[in-house]
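hiii, so i know i said id send this last week but things got crazy w the move. better late than never?? heres the sequnce for the chain we talked about at the cafe, plus the structure i predicted for it. fair warning i was half asleep when i ran it
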Amino acid sequence: MALSRGRRRVAVLGVVACVLGLGVATACGDDNTASTTTVAGHDTARTGSGADGASGSSTTAASTPEAKAIQERGEPKVAKVDAPVTELKITDDVVGTGKEAKAGDTVTAQYVGAVASTGKVFQSSWQMDGAVQFPLGQVIPGWSKGIPGMKEGGRRTLVIPAAMAYGANPPPASGIPPNADLIFVVDLVSVDG
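okay and structure toks below
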């Protein structure tokens, strides 16, 4: 059943709000050398409920060199992960050159989110209204731990264990199964403070 544009936007913003409590990961090929970090998994529940810290404000791409580089790269492809995800895995596919994100900052990003075991995309800001602004203190633990240290203009893949994403309670109608490990590919447009 097709949703009207308004209803589809509300559904999409609901998942965006959830992402503000969610993480990103994928295997993405780029010409730059990728570096990977692994963070021990933890059992913390999602820190953002979606509706409250995730206003899901959408922004258009800025005119900075970093934002232009992201637009030129375009939407990333996401590959499935064959092994169970037990820890947060952070891979810098492209190292940015701009301002570095710190814990608690508000950032603007483009992203693609997929279920790790299948590679099936459940949400892409590239297919919505563009980059989304959100506070890192109001997102899922996979994002709040996976984005700090990233620089504007960079692309980072986050492979997130279910315990650092939505666990047994994914957002309704999100396309995310219960207890699913997730992958997000995030392009950091700007660090807003």
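btw The domain at 5-191 is CATH 3.10.50.40 (Chitinase A; domain 3). thought thatd interest u
miss u guys!!
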